[in-house]
Amino acid sequence: METTKTKVCFVLPALNAGGAQRIMSYLSQNMDKNKFDCTLLVIAKAESTDFDVSHAKVHYFDKDRLLLVARPLFLYLLKHKPDIVMGSIGHVNKLHAAYSFFLRKTKFIGREASINSIMSQYNRSTHITGFVWLFKNYRKVLKRIVCQSEQMATYMHEDHGIPKKRIHLINNPLTVEAKVKTPLNNKIKQLITVGRLSPEKGHERVLNILSKLDTDWHYTIIGEGNQYEKLMEQIKALHFEDKITYIKYTSHVAQYLSESDIFIQGSYVEGFPNAVMESCAVGTPVVAFEAPGGTKDIIQNGINGFIAKDEEEYLNYLNQALYSKKWDPNSVSKSITDKFEKKIILKKYEDMFSDIAQSK
Hints:
There is one protein chain. By secondary structure, the chain is α/β, with parallel strands linked by helices. The protein folds into two domains: 6-173 and 341-358, 3-Layer(aba) Sandwich (Rossmann fold); 189-339, Rossmann fold (3-Layer(aba) Sandwich), CATH 3.40.50.2000. Helices cover 38% and strands 17% of the residues. It contains 14 helices and 13 strands. It has helices at residues 19-30, 66-80, 90-99, 116-119, 132-136, 150-160, 203-210, 228-237, 253-258, 274-282, 295-298, 311-324, 329-340, 342-358; strands spanning 6-12, 36-42, 58-60, 84-87, 107-111, 144-147, 167-169, 189-194, 217-222, 244-247, 262-264, 286-289, 305-308. The chain has a seven-stranded parallel beta sheet, sandwiched between helices. Helix 10 crosses helix 13 (329-340). The longest helix has 17 residues, at 342-358. It starts with 5 loop residues before the first strand and ends with a helix. Residues 179-324 form the Glycosyl transferase family domain. It comes from Psychroserpens ponticola.
């Protein structure tokens, strides 16, 4: 007798580069196909895709705004009757909360991308301002909430009143194949940051710290965002034009990480920093700031990097990481692969979906 598969839809605004997009596209293609029938629903057009989704069932709505897809997405879900729908971006989850009043047999899950109350201090969302009473408390309507870090799970319970039994702590998986590098012997120390150029990422304080670093260094910044002009102005003011390489986008991030001595992160708040995890996976340690989110779930002081409380401590840790600490790339990598290997994380998602499908 053939077992009925659980129908799961993953919903994303687009498949452009980003942590949520990476994880959702991975899940849609790698869930146990004997148990789950997965479809990836993308609001944007197919040409905006930055991830390989050739092994997924994908439906594109070809819309450039969430409000334009509200009706067609609802009609799609009404017709196909998925058992579970999962969103990973706040404004998508708000829309799902509204749908849940009408699609009673479908169970909606929200995956949190960050600690929203802190992130909003740096990036203010303009998505869906109507129905304030519903969208302010939309998480309470969703069947389950997936949190990427322990701190995020605590925040969901204490600040939003979500019962612990409805919160699932599932870290991001390491979805890239990590080839561990050989030890480097760079005379000019190679530093790197990978991430969008936005206020919460703290690029400006990293540059200020580098102005005090008493060694010969070169810094590679990979990413794009609305802080580009401001960042370039600061680089010019510090006379760092010859010491910094800026790369808007590359498909060879792992190579750049492998060629770097230290990954430096200046974030004030994080979701679950995939680039930090990927850096450690290839054997490149990380110096980061203590920040709300998932950084401390990844970094173990002295094992695969350091977490600093302030700029003075950051500078000390950076000097220690560059000179007084002998890093073994294999040990740095193992600290990550043992904990975040994709099969381990995938199993957690499959167990959660099976549990939700069986619940009333």
